[in-house]
């Protein structure tokens, strides 16, 4: 059930954050134009989570507290790069510098496609697996770490996109379940007693059969 909950949320995240995603299209999901890549940088989808999603998710705030979001956008690129196919020339500095921190102007960020290696967007969402209540179990609380990678290492005109989801599971704080579970508990006890009685009767029949064989 734990695995199922994580897998179903992973599928939900792909449909929420990967535009026009189709189930099973992980290997072929890619973009080919600059506009499409900007379109899939999901900042708007991330901000719309409380109003758009069917599932109940909560943001994980930044370490500094307050209302700062924990979303991180990171660009990896060559320090210098110039590619001129018309003249069959290029000038690339393969050193990869550390990217600067994303400031509040993230909505207006630009990508330098001629030297871009990849773009990574990472954020965390919290959820509760309440389906375990059916089995009289205390629900688990999940923290999902979602990482979306735009892979341009090949510089082939095709930017591959993938979404990875890691789950951190822990017991929920102060769980509270309303309602009377006495009937369900009574039913479970009856089922256990019936199964035990059936086992005893079957065992007795087998023993009697073995004894008759030796008579």
Automatic annotation (TrEMBL):
Gene Ontology cellular component annotations, sorted alphabetically: lysosomal membrane; plasma membrane
TM segment ranges: 185-207
Top-rank taxon, per record: Eukaryota
Alphabetical keyword list: Membrane, Transmembrane, Transmembrane helix
Presence of keyword Endoplasmic reticulum: no
Coiled coil: none
GO MF terms held by the record: NAADP-sensitive calcium-release channel activity
Residue span, Mucolipin extracytosolic domain: 2-173
Name under which the protein is recorded: Mucolipin 1
Organism of derivation: Athene cunicularia (Burrowing owl)
Gene: LOC113490897
